[in-house]
Amino acid sequence: MTDTLFYQVAVQSPLRRLFDYLPPKDASVQLPTGVRVTVPFGKREVTAIIVSSSASSDYPSDKLKPITAVLDSSPLLSPILFDVLLWAARYYHHPLGDVLASALPTSLRKGGDLPREHLWRLSTLGKGLPTNALPRAPKQQALLQLLQQHESLSKDALAAAGISTATIRNLKKKALIEDFTHTITHQLFDTDGATDILAESPLKLSDDQQKALERIELHNYHCYLIDGETGSGKTEVYLQTIARVLRYSKQALVLIPEINLSPQTLARFQARFTCPISLIHSGLSEHQRLKAWWAAASGSAGIIIGTRSAAFVPMKSPGIIIVDEEHDSSFKQHEGFRYSARDVAVMRASRENIPLLLGSATPSLESLYNCQQARYQHITIKGRHEGASQAVWQLVDIRHSQLNTGFSQTVIEAISIQLAEGNQVLVFLNRRGFAPTLMCHDCGWVARCKHCDAHLTVHTNRPGLHCHHCEARQRLSTTCPECNSQQLNYLGQGTERSEATLKALFPETEVYRVDRDSTGNKHAMEDLLSQINKNEPCILVGTQMLAKGHHFPGVTLVVVLDADTALFSTDFRALEKMGQLITQVAGRAGRGAKPGVVMIQSHHCEHPVFELLSQQSYAKFAQHVLAERQLSAMPPFTNAALIRAEFHHGGEAFGLLQSARAFLENQMSSSPALRYLGPFPAALEKRGGRYRYQLTVIASERRDIQPLLARLCQWLEQNKSARKIRWSIDVDPQENI
Ligand code: ADP
Ligand code: ZN
Ligand code: ZN
Hints:
binds zinc ion, binds adenosine-5'-diphosphate, 7-stranded parallel β-sheet, alpha/beta, Rossmann fold, 30 strands, 21 helices, 5 domains
């Protein structure tokens, strides 16, 4: 080559910049964008990805080093996906190397190979033989003939044809066959029409479902919000839409909040389709992940179902993206690369020019707002299937009432009536453990975490005091460390205490607790579900895990023990989340033939949101909360970003954010269209031994906030005191503004 070419590569590092390298020593052709290479980086050799090339570099070329090795002959990510990743790095202000890595399984990030397979074929000697060679060794002859018919076959394919390892060994000894490995090349999933893509016939759709199906255009980008209560038949609409997509040989990507919580949904996909389905989630081994990823990337999987990180899985021929339970906060990554898989899906679908379905019984305010703005199409599916009737909601005013560890008399009576009728009851309380506070009756001492600004929670199942904000655990003492009194009181209640109370009140009835502590091991949840599905009278008590994925047809009464916490939260999303959670929990019940009752205990029954929710109108509730957001100029009417800083010495973290604010104001002074709030202490000021602060930027226009944050990032990266302080930028934060 005469003119020198420079490559800009992305390396996994905390730095938000690219690095220049010279072409590899033996380069003869230009390397395309997206190819993995190894480069010397400091004292190490690391895997990097080529992002661009140029004819000049800001660095003198004698200071630059050449690329050591080229790992791929063609890029692993399509140009469109690569573009989406570039967008995500810019939008979330996260280092590109890290963002690109999120689209690759760990082994590929580290420079590993695509999945390879071991194949057998005829050697040159073998190719010279006639079909009737080896007449006295019929098994060997069979193998010979097989390989005369097929260019190469894997060991598994040979075994399936009845060829033993011994036969293979014998022909190899005669040098008639040889083995080799190569990257597995998949066929696209079978769409030749010979096999039907459906393994079972689809259900006959209701009018609403049919209308939904007909509205979904498959050949260009549109975002559809599929809004229908739990059980209204959204999943059936997904299934039938996917069938149409598969018929023209395109793949479907389905994002769900948590794989373990939706075995029923998975089973329905598997029962419906004949094509391979790839599952991508955090529970996979590295090898399984690579295989699932490659099945998606190479196109052999017709359907890819995955959690958050699957938003970036490459697809050979993408045809549709579906985000189920789009309101779920698990789609937002809360550390490192703080992306929202739902929002990435929107960008990806629009760049790919394919449809996107967002489904929920309790759509996020963002998505409802986007419908109002005509950016999304709102498709409502009404009515439940299975002949279930609507639940009746009842607000239970607990002011002045005697509570039995959290249970009002009204609720206790309602539970006993349902049990007597052979029904099941679900009690919802979003707090794990036995009691959130341990206090000394004599001196007022309270058990606190040494590392956080928080009380320790009393646990009795694995007895001890646990901090729910860091890993800290302590022994559960029986005497006060301050005054040696034995009078230690448990204040408030968590699921363990409610479980104990219910067991005491209803000694004849099985009580099952469902929370992160009780479902720790893999099969615990499945075991619990199979117990519950026996449909014998029982009580389920648990946290928000009960609001996700499962259906409990035998449950006729849902009790929400404490609905008040969210009313007084400083988090502006608390109310929205509470409404979603209560509606979701309520929707799990009464799906059988029996009607359901939902009882909500509150000290504030007159609060308008309870009124709206109890009219069973999440839609009206959402309108109310949206109107409040508009009044206070909060998202989705504005765009927010949080700049967080944490450090062992609070003053320094706070100081950094003060200078950050000064820097920002200098760039663009505050106005009604651009507000700076803080720095303020985080909701939990001290956590895990670090003091945490945050600065909020709220802008009417997204185009104002993005360049501002980009400059702030540069400033923070160059700021000396920022080097030791842990800081981050969270665009469209989901919590604690
Ligand atoms: P959602 O995803 O909205 O919760 P599903 O699609 O899971 O709703 O449907 C709820 C239940 O109703 C499922 O058991 C499903 O098999 C059944 N169902 C859905 N659509 C129909 C239909 N058109 N005809 C009969 N049963 C249906
Ligand atoms: Zn004491
Ligand atoms: Zn702690």
